[in-house]
User: Fold this.
Amino acid sequence: MRSFFKPAAAGVVALAIAAGATMALHGQRAEGQAQPPAAQGRGRGAPLPPPEPQAGHPSGKLVIWGDVASFDVPGTLPTHCILTNRFKRGQRMGFRMTAIDGGSGETENTAVLVAHVKYAGSTIDVPMRWRGQGGFPAAEYPRQPSEMWTGVWVVPADAQPGALSYTVTATDRFGRTASFAPFINLVSQITIVE
Amino acid sequence: MRRTGFVAASAIALVCIALAGGRATGAFQSAPPPPAPGTGKLIVYGDMALFQPPGHPENCILRNRFKRGEPVGWRMFVADPSTGKREESAQLVVHVNVSGRTIDIPMRYRATAAQPEREFWVAKWIVPQDTPTGIIRYTVTATDRYGRTGEFKPFEVQASQLTIVE
Assistant:
């Protein structure tokens, strides 16, 4: 019997440690979702560690907003990062967003944002990357753009001209959610042009 | 002895689970109460567009590069920080810094009885003919009936600043 209980006790401990490790890992993943897939975009390497907790967060509502811009590359192109809502086939449509902790008015850097583009009868989810970590081109930004998230969608070569709609949704580590839709004016919706 | 060993193992297991569980779920613990209505800072945001007259094919397209004589348009929204909803009492002003001086442009609330869905504020500024080319800085401030204030600044990206071009 003794020989039965010893393995049993050891088994309980092993199970508990495994369960604990799984739960802790799950928590890190949730926080780390703000990181982009390593293979996307310019100059991205391995995911960076989660940002430090921000004092006083959460407070109030999570609010997100932003705009669209041409993300033409290389960054030296004259159309790189200019505001526009008209894009040609093959052009890089850039979504730029921020997430605010309503009570403090500060950037909520744990927010995970996804742009949702309605295209050809389906919804394309464009994951966004928080720009508060990692390198940034000093020629484009006077400082680390820690208030900004970006995502890119390349207009397909066979896209039909016309307006598309999009929304952006966000979730932060506190479970708050938010959504954003551009102003309703038809002319300023994202539009594919010849 | 056997029982003691099992109890000890169980206790260790419980401690492990409690510690890890606390870490994993701590992020989703109940949030502190939101700021009371009428407190906090207003959240102001929006974009910039070409404000040609209605019917013009380029009216309301998003832009940040303007020529002299073109109408720069701002469209802004003000959110209450505790609800995220529009603060309808807000009054907004665009502050454009041109050639060393600041021009204040009051914004007007765009929704009307006929177009109630236009829940944003607008302002227009026609670029003067003597404006030098280059980046022009601007901010938008808001104040509401509770005395709350908020400020909008565009993303700090050089290429997407309000820019006057030839």
Q: What stands out?
A: Chain B touches chain A through 59 residues (CB under 8 Å). Confidence is low (pLDDT under 50) at residues 13-30 of chain B. Residues 2-26 of chain B form the longest helix (25 residues).
